[in-house]
Amino acid sequence: MYESNNNNQYPNYYGSYSGNMDASSQNVSMSPANPIPPEPKKQKEKGGIFKKVAGMALSGVVFGLCAGSIIVIMLHLAPGETAQEKSESMSITENTNHAVADQDIVKEAEEIATANISGDTVVSDVSQVVENTMPSVVSITGMYKVEEDNYFGFHNFRTESESPGSGSGIIVGQNDTELLIATNNHVVEDATSLAVQFIDDTTADAVVKGTNADVDLAVIAIPLENISRETREAIKVASLGNSDVLKVGEPAIAIGNALGYGQSVTTGVISATNREYTIEENTACLIQTDAAINPGNSGGALLNARGEVIGINSSKIGGSVIEGMGYAIPISTAKPIIEELMTKTTRTKVEEAQKAYLGIVGISVTSEVQEAYGLPEGVYVTQVFSGTGAANAGLVKGDIIVEFDGEKVRTMEELTSLLECYEKGSTVEIKIMQGSPSGYQENTVTVTLGGRVDS
Predict the structure, then answer these.
(1) Annotation says 386 is catalytic
(2) If we measure between CA atoms, which residue out of 56, 348, 297, 322 comes closest to residue 170?
(3) Which of 168, 186, 243, 417 is catalytic?
(4) Over residues 319-339, mean pLDDT
(5) Residue 279: its pLDDT value, please?
(6) Residue 179 dihedral angles phi and psi, to the nearest 5°
(7) Catalytic residue among 190, 216, 290, 399
(8) What is the pLDDT of residues 45-84, one digit of tens each?
(9) Is position 76 annotated as part of the catalytic site?
(10) Is 31 a catalytic residue?
C-alpha cells in the first residue's frame, strides 16, 4: 500500500509593502532662494476626455494593488497582530526582498490557476503520483495460440501457430506462497506462456489462477520463491479506490504497457461514468476517459489524482477507430470478482505425458446457434469415446458442458485449456445441460479423467 505525497493545501502568499509619506522624507528644497514660478494659464487640451478615462483606469489599478496588499497582509497576521503593525514590521524589509516576494506571489498565483478546483492536486504535474504508483503496475508478455484458415484448392485447412502478445497487470496482493496480479481475461486467454516484468526490469513466469470471461477479468500468480528480495522491496501492492464516487471531469491517469514498449503514462479526465457497453453478448457499465488506452494497456491501472486504482483499463473495448474514448472496468465492480479469483486453485500446466483426457469431441455453441436452436452456452458434445472418463460418467452425444471443476466453460478452447492443467487420474465435477421433453435440465456428474493411452 502507499500514500500519495500530494498536499491538500492552498499555497501561501508572501509580500512586503512600505512607504513613508511625510514631508521630512522628501528631498525637495523649499527655501525662498528658489521661488516657485507662477503656473501658466491652462490651455484646453485636445483629447482631454481620453486622458480622464486613462487616469480613472490608472486609479483603479492602484486601488486594486493597494487592496490586494491589504488582503495579503491580513492573511499573514500573527495572533493579536493588527494590520498596521504588520505593515510597519514589513516596511523594514530591504528593497531587494520586495522583488523576490513579488515574484513568489506571481509564481504561486500561476500554480493556483493550474490547480484542481477542489484543491486536491495540481493536474499539470502527475509525476509524484506516477512515482508512487508505478511499482504496483507490471508488464505482461506471452505466447498465444493462433488458428488460421489455409485454403488449398477447394479444401480448407485450419492450422495452429503461436504469436507473441503483450498486456498489463496490477499487483493486488499475495498469499503465503504467491504474488497475485489482476489483469484482463483476454490478456491471458489462449496463452501458452506468460511472463511478468516488474518496475526494476526483472521478469518472472506467471500462471493463471482464475478467470471470469463475462467481465473480462483474470488473476495470475507468481511463486514468491521466484522473485528476488530486491524485487520484492521495489514493488508495491496497489491501493484500490472507490469508483462509485467518481465525478465527470476529475483527473484520470492511465499506466500500462502500451504497444508492448514498456510502462508509459497518459493523462486525461473522467469523460463519463456508468457508460453501458456491450461486448460478446455481455453488457457492462464502464468508466469512459479520454486518457489514451492503447493495445498493451489492457489490464493496467486507471488512477485518480491520489494514486488510487479506480479502474482496470481495457483496450479491447472501443476499437482503434475511436479517438479520445477509452474504457475501464470500475474498480468497485472488479474488486469482489478479483477477491474471489484470488482464492482459486492456481492452474499449472502439467507435462504432456501426464495430461488428462476427458474423452469427447465437442464444438462451441456460438451466439448464432444459441439464437437458432435455443441451446445453452457451452460445449456441445458431438462424440463420446467408449472406455473414457466421460463415457463412464454417463456423458452422451447432445450434452452441453457448461462448467468444469467450478470454472464456467463457454468454448471448446476454454475446456481444452483447463484440461492442460489436470493430471490423468484426477477427479472433477462437470456441470452439463441435458435435453429432455421439457427442455434442457441441469445435471452434475463426477468424472475420473484418464490419459490418452486409455482411449
Answers:
(1) no
(2) 297
(3) 186
(4) 86
(5) 65
(6) -95, 135
(7) 216
(8) 444 544 444 455 445 544 544 444 444 434 444 444 444 5
(9) no
(10) no
